[in-house]
Every structure is written in C-alpha cells, then in structure tokens.
Design goal:
GO terms for molecular function: DNA binding; N-methyltransferase activity. Its EC number is 2.1.1.-. It is an enzyme of class 2 (transferase). Pfam families: N6_N4_Mtase (PF01555). The protein has 252 residues and is α/β, with parallel strands linked by helices. It contains eight helices and seven strands, in the order αβαβαβββααβαβαα. The chain has a seven-stranded mixed beta sheet, with helices on both faces. Helix 2 packs across helix 3 and helix 6 runs parallel beside helix 7. About 4% of the residues have low confidence. Bound molecules: S-adenosylmethionine. S-adenosylmethionine binds next to helix 1.
Length: 252
C-alpha cells in the first residue's frame, strides 16, 4: 500500500524506531548493468514535509529515527525533519558495497557512500552492544586518571568505512547469487547494526518504503517486530519472502 495511507492509520507514539529509505524523486534506472531495473514507483517524489511530520507523530518519545538521503536532497530533507520536530544529531556516511556507475563518469566523483540522517525524538542513549571491539585491549588506561577501556565500542563514528564496518549496500554479484533484484537494495547486516544500537528486542521498527524488504529482514533477524508498506506488488512479494527467510539466510 501507499506509505502515506498507512501512516494515517498509525496512532501517535506507536513505533519504537524508524529506519527508512524513501524515494528521492529521481530516476534510478541504471543503464550500465546487464539486468536493467524498472523505474521505481514514487520516482516523482513524495510529500516529504508531510512524511516527516507523520514520522515524528508515530514515533515514541525518547526514540531514534534514521532516514536515508543523498547529498543533493540532504538540505531539503534536513529542513523537513527539523520542522517536524526531530533533533538531528548526525548525518552518517556509510561505504557502499559497490561504486555507482551512473552520472557523468568523466566529470564527477563516484558515489561510494550512502548518507543517513540520524534523528532523535526526545533523547535515547545508544545501547551497549557487542558489535565492534575497541582496538585497545580491555582495561587499558590510555591517560592517567581516565577510566580503563571497555572491550566493545559504546560510541561509534558517524562515518562507517573500512573492513570493521558492514557496507551499506550489496554489489551486483550478491544480487545475482541471491536472485534478489532492487535498484536501491540495502545490506541487511548494516541495518541490523543500526537496529541493535537503537532498539530493544520485541520493539516495533517502521519502514514505510520496504523495497525488497531489507529493513524487515534485519528486524526479523534481530528479534524485533516490523511494520511497513511497499507500493509495488512485485517488490512487496520479494520483501515478504525475504523477511520470512531472514533468520535462515542471514542468521548464519
Ligand atoms: C529507495 S527504495 C527502498 C529500498 C529498500 N531499502 C531495499 O533495501 O530494498 C524505495 C521504495 O519505496 C517504494 N515506494 C515509492 N513510493 C511509495 C509510497 N508512496 N508508498 C510505499 N512505497 C513506495 C518504491 O517502490 C521503492 O521500492
């Protein structure tokens, strides 16, 4: 169904975390791959101002929201989210699993990162996870008078690059191997890290633009509940299947 129709039915403060990847109002058709993706529904854009207001309304007090964006949409998305009431804490920049092959190949830098606006409604500290070990050994005191270091990181960088972090997207080889095709598919492991940092098991995660169901799969994998919408029946079918199989496919 249409995300805006679903949003209108959701009571205030109903969801515990928003992790969503809305359409930006641009065409994603990539002419450089052998298998051409269909032009996405919503390519003409959504009413982002309204979407931001509704997202704020449905999110519980003291909770986190993540909105995928792009450098040229960022100022507009930032303004809408701020006007909706969100406290914008960071723009995360996360390395893609593959470098995009579209645009001016000879006169622009390759887009090798995803941008994600991280917002809070009220204030919620990050969970202490076991996702990433600190480089220094546990108990190391780096300066006199400071507390001994912990085994796992409790504060993450806003830029996720390099081998210690999961990539934001898959490459075309992964899509071919798994038979899952979507032009803007995101990496389930990456989403599952954000979910583990920002929510508790059993809590409800919202993504109004499911696509191939990466957020739904990440929620299932981490023992969270999920609520979402996808306007394209074909992608919705992929998403349903992927969420159902998440634990067996990604849980290993
Ligand atoms: C950027 S993609 C999301 C991709 C997803 N994160 C994934 O990993 O597959 C946005 C999705 O929103 C869908 N869409 C566009 N407009 C919509 C609307 N008004 N309501 C629900 N879904 C919509 C598109 O069909 C597309 O699959």
């Amino acid at each position: 169904m249409d995300c805006m129709e679903l949003l209108a039915q959701i009571p205030d403060g109903y969801v515990s975390m928003i992790l969503t990847d809305p359409p930006y109002g641009i065409s994603y058709r990539n002419n450089f791959t052998k298998r051409k993706h269909r032009v996405l529904a919503g390519d003409e854009g959504i009413d982002y101002e309204r979407f931001a207001r509704e997202s704020y309304r449905i999110l519980k007090e003291d909770s986190h929201a993540y909105f995928f964006t792009r450098f040229d949409c960022y100022p507009y998305h930032y303004g809408c989210l701020r006007r909706a009431g969100f406290f914008i804490k960071n723009c995360m920049v996360v390395e893609k699993g593959t470098v995009g092959g579209i645009g001016d190949l000879e006169g622009s830098y390759a887009g090798n990162a995803e941008w994600v606006i991280f917002c809070q409604k009220g204030r919620r500290p990050f969970n202490h996870t076991t996702l990433l070990e600190n480089r220094k050994k546990e108990g190391t005191v780096c300066c006199a008078g400071r507390k001994p270091g912990k085994k796992y990181k409790t504060r993450f960088n806003a830029c996720w690059f390099g081998p210690e972090y999961p990539k934001a997207t898959y490459n075309s080889v992964w899509q071919k191997q798994h038979g899952i095709y979507h032009p803007t598919i995101k990496n389930v492991e990456f989403l599952s890290w954000l979910i583990q940092i920002s929510s508790q098991p059993g809590e409800l995660i919202f993504d109004g633009f499911m696509g191939s169901g990466s957020t739904a799969a990440a929620a299932a994998l981490t023992g969270r509940r999920y609520l979402g919408a996808e306007i394209d029946r074909g992608y919705f079918a992929i998403a349903e299947k992927r969420a159902g199989e998440a634990v067996s496919v990604y849980g290993g």
